[in-house]
C-alpha cells in the first residue's frame, strides 16, 4: 500500500520539477556556506591553539567541512536529475540510480542534524580545554628562552589585550606563578633573596600583573605592581578600584567568543537540513 | 579641422552600440565601487580624527564620493543613450541633451583624475596635521577629568597598541610632558616635590612611558619607568635594548598606514577613470556616426564618426564664449547705468 499517494497532472509535475531544481541549487549555495563556516572555525581554533595547549578537538570543524562538501555534491546531483526529469529519454538513464541516491540523501540529512547537535554539545569540551590550556600558558609565560615556548609570552599578552581579560579566572592567577624569568632577577639583591626564600618551592612570587592586563579606559596611569598594597600608591584602594586592570578572566572571555561562534554555526547548519 | 575621424559601416555601428552598452554597465559598477572606496577612506579618517589637527585631507574622500555618484548617473545615461542609438526614431530626442551631457561628463572625469593626483599629493598636509594632533594628544593625555578631553588617554593608548608605536617621533616625546595627572601625585612626598622644583614650569617630568608603549614581543617583562637609568634594572642597558618598547613613532606609523590606503584606492580609481574615459569616447563616436544617418531613408549606410568637429582650441572657446559673454554683459550693463547716472 503506497504511503501518502498524491495525483500529479503534467502542469503540476512541471512546477514541481522547476521548484525542486531551484531548491537544489539553493542547497548548493548553503553547502558552500557551511563549508566556509567550518573553514573559518578551524582557522580560529588554530589561531588560539596555543591557549588550549594544542589539545583542542578539531572534530566539529572537520565534520562541518565534510558536510558542506557533501551537501554541495549531493545537491548538484539532485539538481541535474531534476533538470533531466521532464525529458523521458534523459530521465531513463537516471532511473536505476534514484533509489540509492534517495537513501544517501536521508543518511546525509541525519549527518547534518548530528553535526548541528555536536556544535551545541562540544562547547563543554572547549570550556575544559581552555581552563587547562590557560593555566599552563600562565605557567610558561616566563619561558621565553625555552624552545617551543618562546612565543607563549607574546601570545598570552596579545590575547589579554585583544579579549580585554586578565589571568585564567581573574587577575589573582598571576599572583600564584612566577612570571618573571630568573634571567632578569638580581639574585644578589636582599629583597629578591627574601622573596624567593619565603616560598616553599623557591619561586619569586609577587602581587603584580603583566602590562597586558592594563585597562586603557582607566583615568590614571596603570598600576601593575603592589596591587594589594594600598600605601604603595597615592589615593589607591584595591578593594574599590575597578578600572585599573581588566577584571574578567580570559577563560570566560575566550569561552564566550567560541560559544557564540558555535551557536550561530549550529543554528545556521540545522535550518537547511529541515527544508531538505 | 575634425579631430579623429573614423569610418563606421552599419555592422561596426551595431557592434559599437553593443560593446558600449556592456562597457557602460561595467562603468556603472565601477562608479559604485569608487563611491564605496570614498566612504571607506572617510570612515578611516574620521576614526582617527582626534589625532589630526585639521581636516584638509578629507577633500580626497569627499571628491571620490561626489565623483562616484556622478559616474553612476553618467553611465546609466550612457547605457540608455546607446540603447536608443540604433533606433532612428528614438535617437533624435536625445539630440538637445547631448552637448551639456558631454560637458558635465568631461568635468567629472577630469575631477576623478584630480582626486587620484590629490591622494598621492596629500602626504605633506597629512603629516603636518598628524604632527600637531599627536603633540596635543600627548599633552592632554593626563586630562581625564577635563570635559572634551576625557577620552584622550584611552584613544592614545589604543592607538599606540594598535599601530605598535610610541610617542610622536619616538618614545622620548613622553619624557617632555607631564603625563601623570596631579590628582595621582602625592605632594607631601619628598621625591615628588624635588622633581617638580627641578623643573622651570613646575611639571612632574620623568623618564617613563605609559604601558601602551610596551612591546609584547619582548622576552622580559616590560620596563616602563626609569628607562635611561641602567642601574635601576638588572641586566639592562637602554642604549642596546630594542625589544622592550615600540621604537617607531606614531606619526610615521599613521602616515604610512594612510598613504598605503590612499595609494591603493588611487590605483583603483585610476582604472575606473580609464574605463569612464573609454565610455565617453565610444559614446561620442556613436553619437556622431548616428547623427550622419539621420534624415536618410536607408539606415544602413556607412557614415563617418569623429571626436570633435573643430580643433580642440576652437571647441574650448565655443564652450567658454557663452560664459564669458554672460559676465561681460553684466559688466556692460553696470557701465551703462553708471554712465546714465553720471549724465545730468
Automatic annotation (TrEMBL), chain A:
Short name of one Pfam family for this protein?
Tetraspanin
In its keyword annotation, does this UniProt entry include Membrane? yes
Q: Which UniProt keywords apply?
A: Cell adhesion, Disulfide bond, Glycoprotein, Membrane, Transmembrane, Transmembrane helix
- Localization terms from the record: Membrane
An example of a Gene Ontology cellular component annotation for this protein is: plasma membrane
Membrane topology is:
Multi-pass membrane protein
Question: Protein name, please?
Answer: Peripherin-2
From TrEMBL, chain B:
Please tell me where this protein is predominantly located.
membrane
Enumerate the Gene Ontology biological process terms: visual perception
Q: Which GO cellular component term is one of those annotated?
A: plasma membrane
Q: Which UniProt keywords apply?
A: Membrane, Transmembrane, Transmembrane helix
The way it spans or sits in the membrane comes to: Multi-pass membrane protein
Looking at the record's lineage, which domain of life comes first?
Eukaryota
Alphabetized CDD domains for the sequence: peripherin_like_LEL
**Membrane-spanning residues:** 20-41, 62-81, 101-121, 254-275
Q: Which family does it belong to?
A: Belongs to the PRPH2/ROM1 family.
Q: Which PANTHER family match?
A: PERIPHERIN-2, TETRASPANIN
What protein name does the entry list? Peripherin-2
Taxon lineage: Eukaryota, Metazoa, Chordata, Craniata, Vertebrata
Amino acid at each position: 500500500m503506497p504511503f501518502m499517494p498524491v495525483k500529479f497532472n503534467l502542469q503540476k509535475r512541471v512546477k514541481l520539477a522547476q521548484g525542486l531544481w531551484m531548491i537544489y541549487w539553493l542547497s548548493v549555495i548553503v553547502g558552500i556556506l557551511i563549508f566556509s563556516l567550518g573553514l573559518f572555525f578551524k582557522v580560529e581554533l588554530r589561531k588560539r591553539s596555543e591557549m588550549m595547549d594544542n589539545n583542542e578537538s578539531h572534530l566539529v570543524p572537520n565534520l562541518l567541512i565534510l558536510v558542506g562538501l557533501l551537501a554541495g555534491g549531493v545537491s548538484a546531483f539532485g539538481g541535474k536529475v531534476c533538470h533531466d526529469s521532464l525529458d523521458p529519454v534523459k530521465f531513463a538513464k537516471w532511473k536505476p540510480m534514484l533509489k540509492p541516491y534517495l537513501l544517501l540523501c536521508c543518511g546525509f540529512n541525519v549527518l547534518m542534524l548530528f553535526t548541528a547537535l555536536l556544535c551545541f554539545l562540544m562547547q563543554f569540551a572547549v570550556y575544559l580545554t581552555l581552563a587547562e590550556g590557560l593555566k599552563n600558558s600562565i605557567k610558561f609565560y616566563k619561558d621565553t628562552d625555552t624552545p617551543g615556548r618562546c612565543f607563549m609570552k607574546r601570545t598570552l599578552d596579545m590575547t589579554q589585550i585583544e579579549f580585554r581579560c586578565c589571568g585564567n579566572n581573574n587577575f589573582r592567577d598571576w599572583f600564584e606563578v612566577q612570571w618573571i624569568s630568573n634571567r632578569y632577577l638580581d639574585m644578589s639583591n636582599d629583597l629578591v633573596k627574601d622573596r624567593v626564600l619565603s616560598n616553599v618551592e623557591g619561586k619569586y612570587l609577587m602581587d603584580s600583573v603583566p602590562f597586558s592586563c592594563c585597562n586603557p579606559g582607566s583615568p590614571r596611569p596603570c598600576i601593575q605592581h603592589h596591587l594589594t598594597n594600598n600605601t604603595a600608591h597615592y589615593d589607591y584602594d584595591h578593594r574599590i578600584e575597578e578600572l585599573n586592570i581588566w577584571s574578567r578572566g580570559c577563560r570566560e572571555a575566550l569561552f564566550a567568543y567560541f560559544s557564540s561562534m558555535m551557536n550561530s554555526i549550529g543554528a545556521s547548519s540545522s535550518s537547511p537540513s529541515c527544508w531538505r | 579641422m575634425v579631430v579623429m575621424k573614423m569610418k563606421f559601416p552599419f555592422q561596426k555601428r551595431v557592434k559599437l552600440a553593443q560593446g558600449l552598452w556592456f562597457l557602460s554597465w561595467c562603468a556603472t559598477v565601477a562608479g559604485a565601487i569608487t563611491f564605496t572606496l570614498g566612504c571607506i577612506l572617510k570612515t578611516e579618517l574620521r576614526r582617527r580624527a582626534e589625532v589630526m589637527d585639521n581636516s584638509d585631507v578629507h577633500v580626497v574622500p569627499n571628491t571620490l564620493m561626489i565623483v562616484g555618484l556622478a559616474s553612476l548617473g553618467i553611465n546609466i545615461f550612457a547605457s540608455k543613450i546607446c540603447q536608443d542609438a540604433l533606433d532612428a526614431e528614438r535617437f533624435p530626442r536625445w539630440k538637445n541633451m547631448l552637448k551639456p551631457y558631454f560637458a558635465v561628463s568631461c568635468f567629472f572625469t577630469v575631477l576623478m583624475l584630480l582626486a587620484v593626483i590629490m591622494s598621492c599629493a596629500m602626504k605633506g598636509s597629512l603629516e603636518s596635521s598628524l604632527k600637531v594632533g599627536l603633540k596635543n594628544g600627548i599633552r592632554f593625555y593626563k586630562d581625564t577629568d577635563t570635559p572634551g578631553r576625557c577620552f584622550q588617554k584611552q584613544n592614545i593608548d589604543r592607538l599606540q597598541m594598535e599601530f605598535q608605536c610610541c610617542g610622536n617621533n619616538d618614545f622620548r616625546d613622553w619624557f617632555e610632558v607631564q603625563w601623570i595627572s596631579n590628582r595621582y601625585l602625592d605632594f607631601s612626598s619628598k621625591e615628588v616635590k624635588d622633581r617638580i622644583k627641578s623643573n622651570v614650569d613646575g611639571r612632574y617630568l620623568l623618564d617613563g612611558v605609559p604601558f601602551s608603549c610596551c612591546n609584547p614581543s619582548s622576552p622580559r617583562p616590560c620596563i616602563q619607568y626609569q628607562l635611561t637609568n641602567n642601574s635601576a634594572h638588572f641586566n639592562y642597558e637602554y642604549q642596546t635594548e630594542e625589544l622592550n618598547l615600540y621604537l617607531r613613532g606614531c606619526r610615521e606609523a599613521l602616515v604610512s598606514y594612510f598613504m598605503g590606503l590612499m595609494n591603493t584606492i588611487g590605483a583603483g580609481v585610476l582604472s575606473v577613470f580609464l574605463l569612464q574615459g573609454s565610455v565617453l569616447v565610444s559614446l561620442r563616436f556613436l553619437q556622431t556616426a548616428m547623427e550622419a544617418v539621420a534624415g536618410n531613408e536607408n539606415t544602413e549606410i556607412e557614415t563617418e564618426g569623429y571626436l570633435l568637429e573643430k580643433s580642440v582650441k576652437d571647441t574650448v572657446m565655443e564652450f567658454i564664449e557663452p560664459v564669458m559673454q554672460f559676465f561681460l554683459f553684466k559688466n556692460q550693463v553696470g557701465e551703462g547705468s553708471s554712465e546714465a547716472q553720471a549724465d545730468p
